[in-house]
Specification:
Radius of gyration: 23 Å
Strand order of the largest sheet: 1-2
Number of strands: 8
Strand content: 5-15%
Helix content: over 70%
Order of helices and strands: HHHHEEHHHHEEEHEHHHEEHHH
Distance between the termini: 36 Å
Structural class: mainly alpha
Length: 448
């Protein structure tokens, strides 16, 4: 394999692995902050134990997420030097803000939250975890605004053979970036909700601390229901923006080869990638795709044949990733709805089949998140900055395949080790259940 292919594979491996940790951090920070706030308001010790138990799992995930994220930025200089030269002035600005504002904010207050138990007032301690949650979500905002600029570049001019920023506010207010942020953020909330429901289901099946885990499940189920509905709504708006700004990606997502008006939404289609024929329609809703994309049943959708072959993204992987992700989105609504109803009726511990289902459903939001990034990044190809810079022109010219092979193997082994550690620690402390004292949370943070 050449340098381009190896560099793409390396970044895909590191990015996909890093994003295993990010969504759980985003969602658990909010849930833990809510639980501790409930303790401050009600003085109910149960909520304090909940904040400590789920906070312990949050800390394990948070620490490993930081380690895996640092290496990604180094690759921009090592493997993608031409990209950094061409758009560094623009792409670097939001990343610098993320590091100097959001990261330092969350790093400061996570320390206060870990070591501030019984040393600061309850309200100050609860405020510290809220500031961690805000900073964590703010960190995601700046990173996703940077990614949004790659998807829909705005506020720049091409000068001296490079892209230069002329309107910072255009980047900050970029609709694509905000839609990307909202969809990614909400997906993290859904993942955290299913994580809490799954771990709670494990303990309820074993009849362990049933009151504690019934409450945890109920909170997560309501949170999951609200956020999974919002996820579908944000996904719809996101797809509309893709149709407007990235017609090749949208055509690949829906396997539309020929430019048509009043395009049906195919619920089940088989894309003929090799022969470039239109998709075989099995079940479809007439004109619904045009209506969804442009709010006009007779709107025209540009097909892939209208674009040169070298500017078309991988169709099969984009199409199937999008379809599976969408199906999982509806499944999240259904499962969280059932969980909310059952937990409200106080019948949860007697629904063993449903609890087993929720336990095994823990990986599903992870899968959906990874598929979403496949749609986003593969669907943008062959562009690294859509319509501005191709991926083949962004790779470093001074590195060799053996060098990239070495770093790729090294990253894979290192990340594999971190993955084993993460699974071991999360499983260990999830199975152990809540502690009645504070020592465990300090011990787990040091162990990480």
């Amino acid at each position: 394999m050449d340098v381009l292919t190896l560099s793409r594979l390396q970044f895909a491996v590191t990015a996909a692995f890093h994003f295993i940790f990010v969504p759980l951090t985003l969602g658990l920070s909010i849930l833990v902050a809510y639980m501790e706030s409930r303790y401050v308001r009600t003085n109910d010790e149960m909520y304090l134990k909940m904040a400590k138990f789920w906070g312990k799992l949050f800390l394990i995930n948070f620490a490993l997420g930081i380690v895996t994220g640092i290496t990604m930025e180094f690759q921009l200089g090592m493997n993608w030097a031409e990209y950094s030269k061409y758009v560094g002035d623009i792409f670097g600005a939001p990343l610098a803000i993320e590091a100097t504002v959001a990261f330092f904010l969350e790093s400061t207050f996570i320390g206060l939250w870990i070591f501030g138990w019984n040393k600061v007032s309850k309200k100050v301690h609860a405020l510290s975890i809220w500031l961690v949650a805000i900073a964590t979500n703010l960190s995601a905002l700046w990173i996703l605004l940077a990614n949004g600029w790659m998807q829909e570049p705005v506020g720049y001019v091409l000068r001296n053979n490079r892209a230069e920023m002329v309107d910072f506010m255009a980047l900050v207010t970029n609709p694509y970036g905000w839609l990307k942020f909202s969809h990614t953020l909400i997906s993290g909330y859904v993942l955290a909700a299913f994580f809490v429901m799954g771990v709670s289901a494990y303990h309820l099946l074993k009849k362990n601390r049933t009151d504690f885990f019934k409450r945890s499940f109920r909170i997560a189920a309501v949170f999951g229901l609200v956020t999974s509905i919002l996820l579908l709504v944000s996904g719809t708006f996101h797809a509309e923006r893709v149709a407007m700004t990235q017609p090749t990606k949208f055509a690949a997502m829906e396997a539309v080869w020929d430019t048509q008006k009043g395009v049906a939404y195919n619920l089940l289609v088989i894309p003929d990638v090799d022969n470039e024929r239109n998709t075989v329609e099995a079940v479809g809703i007439p004109k619904f795709l045009s209506l969804l994309a442009f709010h006009d049943a007779d709107a025209e959708i540009r097909g892939l044949k209208e674009f040169p072959k070298e500017e078309r993204p991988p169709v099969a992987s984009t199409f199937y990733s999008f379809r599976v992700m969408a199906v999982l989105g509806f499944l999240f609504v259904l499962l969280s709805l059932i969980g909310t109803i059952v937990s409200r009726k106080d019948e949860l511990e007697n629904r063993s089949r449903f609890l087993k289902l929720m336990l095994f459903a823990i990986p599903l939001p992870y899968i959906a998140g990874q598929l979403g990034w496949l749609v986003s990044e593969l669907g943008r190809q062959p562009w690294i900055v859509y319509g501005v810079l191709k991926t083949s022109d962004a790779v470093s010219k001074s590195i060799t395949p053996p060098q990239v092979w070495t770093s790729l193997i090294g990253f894979t082994l290192f990340y594999g080790m971190l993955g084993i550690i993460d699974i071991y620690l999360l499983a260990k402390y999830s199975k152990k259940g809540p502690d009645d004292d504070l020592s465990a949370i300090i011990k787990s943070s040091r162990e990480v």
